[in-house]
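>> Question from a student workshop board

For tomorrow's exercise we were told to take the sequence and the ligand below, predict the bound structure, and bring the output to class. My setup keeps failing. Could a helper post the expected result so I can at least see what it should look like? The ligand is calcium ion.
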Amino acid sequence: MVPNCSFEVYNYTTESQKDRDIMNEQLQEKGYYNLSANSTQQGKILYWQITANNIDWLLSGVVITCSLGDHCIELTGQNTNDAGQVVKSGMGSITYTLTTLPKRRYVVRFDLAGNFKCGTPAHLRVSTASDKYKDFTFDTAGKSINNMGWVRTSWEFKPGQSNYTNLTFSSLDEGTCGPIIDNVVVVDVGP
Ligand SMILES: [Ca+2]
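>> Workshop helper replied:
Here is what the output should look like for this input. Compare the format with yours to find the bug.
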């Protein structure tokens, strides 16, 4: 139901080879590539839209370890300038438009961790509408690249009357550290 559940697939169609090289270099050096909601970077993580501020597409094994595959998403992005200073950061969101049937129930399952370098808890909101959501907290104390403490997490939701649902993951953390997600699966669990 969510083909790109693991955030592995990047849409390179508009990148030149030079752009790809710069991007890969940044991923290898810093461990992340920042993507903004208000730019041509929209829709680069296939099937997902960035719907607020900016996020970081993380490469596993540099500063964090993803739970599945080589990439995962930190929802508090770090948009830095050439001097390496954070110039725009904040509570990012990504959204997947699911095909859903009214009167069914669905469960979204995902792996949750947090950026531990600030030493603060990470806060995540999963929502299908402004008044339909659940918040989660991840304690980053004692976590490290070799001990991410990934937690399999789930939330059941009921879609509206239309035949689609916008499933959104949002950071509730300003600054430079936020929740990290990976391995998203949505299943129909019955009427
Ligand atoms: Ca992944």
